[in-house]
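re: ur question from yesterday

yeah so i grabbed the chain u mentioned. its 630 aa long if i counted rite. heres the sequnce exactly as i have it in my notes:
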Amino acid sequence: MESLYRKYRPLTFDSVVGQQHIVSTLEHAITEGRLSHAYLFCGPRGTGKTTMARILAKALLCRNAETARAEGASGCMPDGTCEECELIAEGNHPDVYELDAASRTGVDNVREEIINSVNFAPVRGKYKIYIIDEVHMLTTAAFNALLKTLEEPPTHVIFVLCTTDPQKILETILSRCQRFDFHRIGNEDIEHRLAYVCEQEGFDYDDEALAIVARHAKGGMRDALSTLEQLSVFGNGSVHADDARSLLGEVSDQILGEFARAIAERDVAELYGLIRAQVEEGNDLLELTRDLVAHVRDVYVACVAGARAELFEGGSEQVEALAAEAAAFGEHPADRLARVLTVLDDAALEMRGASDVRLVLEIACTRLTRPEADLTIEALAERVARLEAMVANGAVPASVAAAQAAAPAASVPVAAQQPTLISGARAAAPAASTAPAATSAHQGGMPWDRGTAVPAAQPAPKSTAPASKPVTPAPQPVAAPAPAPAASTVPVSKPNNAAQVAAAGAAETPAVEDAGELQRKWVEVVERVKARQASYAGLLLNARATADDGSKLTVSFPAGSTFAIKMLGRADTQSVVLPTVSAVFGRRTVDYVLDGGGTPAPQHEEHSPSARAAVSADPQPVSSAAPVSS
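ran it thru and got these C-alpha cells back, copy pasting raw so excuse formatting
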C-alpha cells in the first residue's frame, strides 16, 4: 500500500497547498521566458520544496505545456499525464537528476555527477534540471567545486537547490540563486486537504479530529498526512477526536483551562492533582507542557490585544473563556502571564533531558504559584508588585501585622512604630514628641488610622526625675504643622506629659568609635532582622556600618544598590529594621549612603530627604506605669 503523503503528493501547480506566492512567481517566469539558471527552495520540513522542484521540471519539459505556450495559449501548468510528466514523477527521466546531498557530500560526488555531465545536451527535452536535496550537507570543498558551474552553467541547465537550513550554505552560493522561502502551511489549509483525502479514501472523520491533526503537524503537510494514515489504521477506517487525543497525547481545552485557573489562583495542590491525573492517564507531560504554553499564549494575547475573534482559531465561546482566564490573573495580568510563559518554556526545554519530567513540571508550577519560593529577579518583581498593590489598597502586609502583634506598643520604640510621612513635610523625631503616639495606640488603634495630621511639636526638656514618678512639666509651645496633602495626614492625639518626661529623661547610648565593635554590632542587627523577616535582611547583606557619632548611624551601600535603599525607605521595612537598630545601637538616626564619596543614597520618591529624621528610633521603652494626664 502506498503511503498517503506519496499518493497525494501534488502533481501540478494547481494542487499545491499553502505556497501560492511561489506558484505565481514560477508560473509568470515560465510564461514570460524569464527563467533563472539556479533556484534555492528553503523552508521547514514537509512544506513542498522537493515537490515544487519536480513540478517546475514538469512545467519545463511537459510536451502539452510546451505546445500550449508555442501556440500562445494561456497557462503553463503541466498536465501531469504526458510521458515526460510520468517519467519525472517516477524518477526515471534522463534529463532530471535528483541528488541527495546528505549521502553524497564530497567534492568527488559533485565532480562525477554534476561537473562532468553538465556540458552534455539534454536527451529528451529542452532542459537538463539538477535537483539537489538537502544541499546544506555538502562540504565546503564540494560547494567551491560547484561554484563556477553554478555561476555560469550552459544555457540548457537549471539548478534547483532544496534545504531546510539555508544558514549553512555559503554566501557565494546564495548570491547566485533566486531564493524562495516556503512558509508553514496554515491549519485551515491542512484541514481542507485532510478532508479531501478522507473523502477520496472513504474514511469516516469528524472536523475536530482533523483540527487536532493539523495543529499537531505544525505547518507540515507531510506530517499531517502521515498522522492521518496512522489514525485511520488505529480507528479501522475512522478518524475521531478521542482517538486523535489518545494517539497524539493532545490535552483538551477544558483541562488546559483548569491548569491556567489554578495558576492564576496560586493553588499548588490543585495543580499537583491535575498533573497526577495526566500521569495516570498515560499522557506525555512534555506534550502537556507544550500545549499549556500554547494555551497560556492565547490567554496572554487575549489579555494584551483584547478578545478579538480574528486573533484565535476557536469560536466566540473559546474567546470568551480566554478573556475570563486572563481576568483571573489579577490587576496586572500581562506581567504574570509573561512570567508563566517564560517558566513553562524553560521547563519544557529542561524536560527534554530530565530523568523525572514530572518533578520538573511540579517545580515549575510551585515557582508560579509561590513566588516567595523562587529566587529569580522576575519572582522578586512579582512580590514587590503584590506589596505595592497591598499598600495602594490600604492593606497591611502579613509580615508587618505579625511584627506589630509580637511587639506591644509599650515595649517597642515608638518612633519605629510610626510610618515615615510621605508628604515631604519634616517629621518630628525626638522621643518626647513620639510618646503621645504610643498612648493613643493603647487608647484605640494606631493614630494614622483616623485621618488627621500630627503637628510637629517642640521636644520637651530633659528631666532628672526618675521615669517611674509622675511629673507635670510646664506646657510647651506647639509649632504650627507643616502643610501636607490630605492623603498623608494622620490624627492628633492628646500629649501625654508624664510619658514625655519619662522619655526625655532616658539616658542616651554613647557612640561606637571602634571599627571592629561597630561592625560586630551591625552584623548583630542583620542577624536579628533575618530572624524576624529574612527578605528584609537580604536588603542589608551588602551594607556595612561606617560611622556612629552617638546620634546618627551611617550605613554604606555599594554602587548599584538603589533598589535596596528604596525598599528600606518603606514603612513596612522600617517597622522591622529600625527597632532592631535601636535595640543594638541605642537611639539613632540612620543615614543610608552609597560608596564613592559618602553622598546620601537616592531616596524613594515617597521619602524625601526632609523626612530622613523620621527613621530614628528611641531604644528606651515608654514606662507603662507613668500616669496619663488628661
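noticed a couple things. The longest strand covers residues 157-163. also Strands lie at 38-42, 96-100, 128-133, 157-163, 178-181, 204-205, 238-239, 544-548, 552-557, 589-594.
anyway ttyl
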